[in-house]
Every structure is written in C-alpha cells, then in structure tokens.
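Q: Please design a sequence for this.
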C-alpha cells in the first residue's frame, strides 16, 4: 500500500522523451541509459553462448594479466630488411589484409612513394602501373609483429624502432615518425617526401642506432607513465614523451662521433616533431597486447587497425582471424580550406594505443587534445570514464591524475561492447581522400559495430555446447 500512498519513484528506460515529459511536470525521475545489444536478436544468442562459456572468466583474467605484466623497452633501431626479413619488392601496410583494387587514395599514395623510394619505379605514375598489375607484394604490419601509423607503409630500407620485453623475449617494431603534413604515411609522395625519407635512412636511423646502443635500453613504460602525468595521451599528443626521449639520447647523439652538423640536424628534427614518440607508444602498446593473444575463451581485443577501407579487430580467443567492417570517417577539425568531403575513411595501426588504454581512452589526462581533434574538456573527461564500462581491468602503471590517479581502462571486452552498445573512442589524424594530398585534419571516430558482433559470433561458435 505504500506504493499508492507515498511519492512515486519513477525510473525511465529508452527514449528520453518520457523522462523529459515527467521532469516538465516536476516529477522526480531517474533515467536509465539502457540500450539493446548491438546486432539484435542474433547477437543476444551469441552473448548467451559466450557468457556461459565456463572458460571465459579465467581466460579473460589470464589474457589481461599477461598484458599488464609486460615491460616494454626500446632496445635497437635497425633497417626493416634486417629487422623483419622484408625483401625487395615487399611492403607492409596498416590495418587488416588489403588488395590494390580496394586500396584507398592515401594507401595507394604511400605505396607509390615507397616504390620510388626503393628504386622500383622512377615516378609515382610508373609505380602505380606496376602496383596495379600486381608487381609488388604487401601484407599487414601486424602479421610481422609491427605497427605503422596512418597508411603504415614500410619498405626494406626504412629504419625501425625495435621494442622488447626482457621477461618473454617478445619483440615488436615500428617505423620512424616523419612529422606532420605532406608525409608518406598520409599518402603524400612528392620529391620532398622522398628526400626526407632518404635522409631518415642515411642519417637519422644510423645516428639513433649509435646513440641507443651507447645509452642502453630506454624504459618506454616509465616514459608513458610520465607522459600521462604531463598532459600527453600517447596518440595525438606526444610532446612530453618526445622531449623525454630526446633528453635521454642527446648526450649519446653528441658523443656518437658523427659530424656535429648531422647530430644537430637529428636533434632539431626530433625536437621539432611533437609526434616523434607516437612511433614508440604504438609498438609498446602492441608488445603488451601481443602477450594477451591465443587464450581460448577470451573475448579481449588484442588489435584494432584500419587500412583506409576496412576496420579490423582481433581477439585473444580467436587467433589471427580478422573481423572487419567498412571503416567510418572521422569527424573533427580540418586544416586550411579542407573539409569533410576531403577526408578519407579511418586509417592506421595507431588505434593500438586505444586498444591498450591510451589515446582516446586517456583523453581525461590530456584536455588540450580537444583543440586538435574536436570536442571539449567535459567530453574528454566523460569519454575516459565511459571506457571503463567496456574494459576488463585498470592498468596501475598508467594513471590519470585528474581521475584521482585511476589506472587507464585496459582490456576491451567484446561482450561488454556488444552488451552496452558503447564503442571504443579513438582520436586520430585524417588523411586526404586523394593520393598525394597528405594530412587534412584530425578528429574523433569509433569502430563499426560489425567488427564486434562478428567477433562475438566467432567466440560463440568456439564455445562449448550449452548444457541442459
């Protein structure tokens, strides 16, 4: 009878109009943010199968525990040919597997430029003809334990950062960062792009190798932890990380025996490129996530990657299988006169940072990032809080001061994404839609939901039969 005589407690679910109508009549109301699972009834059946899998809890704990145990260190700088066994005529690219006929403009532009860089074509036009008739081999960076930003194209003569976990001996790699604007990773291939890459192979790579070998390994986990305390989120803001790396290596650069002009040019290049550390944060994140692979029954996401056409994910419980859907186009801020019509769909392996709990997941600690990718400070704070709803753990080594030093949300869980309808938040650069243009802006994007429903379906198919 108290229900009829007392003040009602009203809870609303679904469309906001019900809560708004009651609030307009001065009725206290508690709206519940409920959404049906992604993928409808079919996904509900898959969820039941996966959530009932008796292996799931232990498998997820094992996978995320392995990730958190990794201690990534920068140990060497070497050419891709030697580091990855990449032979002439072979190239790596970002994202899931791709064929030339489906490649986007920036991916085509980067491959064309790499062909010229390697001396396999005299001009970008000649390179395009060779590529169109199948005259080169290319495969995802992820298939060789590497990652590449944006188009992510790697050719044999490019120099790579080598990252290692001493406890397991596992290694990952990433190319050296070119800077912003008209650069190969954004699909530009003009003479200045090729000249810069040749200087990086002739001067930057060898000097970094000499300095690092004299210095010894650099603890990237410790640097990333400090970056999060200094306003970087390790994807689109890497200023403090870049300067900390330069502080570590500059004495050994000067003492390397290289001509003073070369050492000064290298220091100037790194110091003037705020994104230089991105290409270290990415392989550090991949090294951590690779430790969580191959755990049957786990729906933890170990890779999110885009090739400019498709977005793909991989999970701990499904091996090397990719689950793909058409990539979304980022929304954000544009350079100069560029606008939404100029932006290519999402591209790059750099979403490995978000997969590891950095980047868009850590925007709360880098409020200045919103001036580069869009949104506002309140959005950055809310985004970081919301990502805890779709992850399995918090990383105690990577803390967000503004959230009372809470560890970053780590271990994206396919089931939680599908159940809540909350998609991982990624902040990213935007490449021009046409080959040769380069960067046109930066913004925010989420993966297509189809990647997660497809992964859930595979996990359900691999789960033991339901009993009873």
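A: Design:
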């Amino acid at each position: 009878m108290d229900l009829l005589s007392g003040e009602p407690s009203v809870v609303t679910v679904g469309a906001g109009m019900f809560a708004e109508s009651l609030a307009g009549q001065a009725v206290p109301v508690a709206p519940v943010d409920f959404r049906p699972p992604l993928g409808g009834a079919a996904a509900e059946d898959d969820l039941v199968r996966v959530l009932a899998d008796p292996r799931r809890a232990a498998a997820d704990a094992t996978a995320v525990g392995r990730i958190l145990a990794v201690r990534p260190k920068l140990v060497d700088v070497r050419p891709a040919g030697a580091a990855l066994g990449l032979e002439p005529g072979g190239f790596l690219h970002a994202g899931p597997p791709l064929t030339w006929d489906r490649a986007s403009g920036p991916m085509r532009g980067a491959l064309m430029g790499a062909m010229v860089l390697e001396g396999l074509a005299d001009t970008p036009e000649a390179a395009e003809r060779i590529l169109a008739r199948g005259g080169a081999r290319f495969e995802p960076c992820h298939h060789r334990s590497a990652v590449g930003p944006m188009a992510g194209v790697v050719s044999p003569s490019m120099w790579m950062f080598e990252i290692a976990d001493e406890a397991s001996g596992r290694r990952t790699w990433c190319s050296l960062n070119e800077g912003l604007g008209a650069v190969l990773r954004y699909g530009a291939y003009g003479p200045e792009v090729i000249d810069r890459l040749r200087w990086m192979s002739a001067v930057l790579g060898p000097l970094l190798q000499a300095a690092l070998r004299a210095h010894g390994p650099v603890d990237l986990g410790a640097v990333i932890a400090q970056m999060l305390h200094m306003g970087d989120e390790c994807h689109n803001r890497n200023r403090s990380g870049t300067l900390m790396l330069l502080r570590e290596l500059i004495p050994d650069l000067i003492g390397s025996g290289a001509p003073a002009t070369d050492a000064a040019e290298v220091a100037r290049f790194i110091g003037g490129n705020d994104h230089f550390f991105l290409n270290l944060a990415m392989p550090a994140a991949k090294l951590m996530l690779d430790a969580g692979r191959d755990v049957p029954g786990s729906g933890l996401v170990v890779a999110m990657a885009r090739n400019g056409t498709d977005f793909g994910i991989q999970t701990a419980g499904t091996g090397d299988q990719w689950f793909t859907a058409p990539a979304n186009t980022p929304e954000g801020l544009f350079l100069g006169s560029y606008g939404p019509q100029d932006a290519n769909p999402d591209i790059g392996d750099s979403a490995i940072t978000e997969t590891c709990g950095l980047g868009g997941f850590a925007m709360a600690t880098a409020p200045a990032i919103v001036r580069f990718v869009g949104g506002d400070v309140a959005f950055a704070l809310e985004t970081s809080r919301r990502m805890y709803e779709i992850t399995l753990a918090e990383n105690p080594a990577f803390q967000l001061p503004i959230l009372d030093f809470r560890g970053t949300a780590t271990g994206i869980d396919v089931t939680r994404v599908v159940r809540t309808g909350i998609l991982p938040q990624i902040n990213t650069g935007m490449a021009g839609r046409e080959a040769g243009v380069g960067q046109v802006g930066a913004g925010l994007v989420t993966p297509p939901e189809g990647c997660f429903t497809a992964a859930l379906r595979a996990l359900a198919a691999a789960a033991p039969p339901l009993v009873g």
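Q: Thanks. Anything notable?
A: The chain has 17 helices and 18 strands. The longest strand covers residues 391-400.
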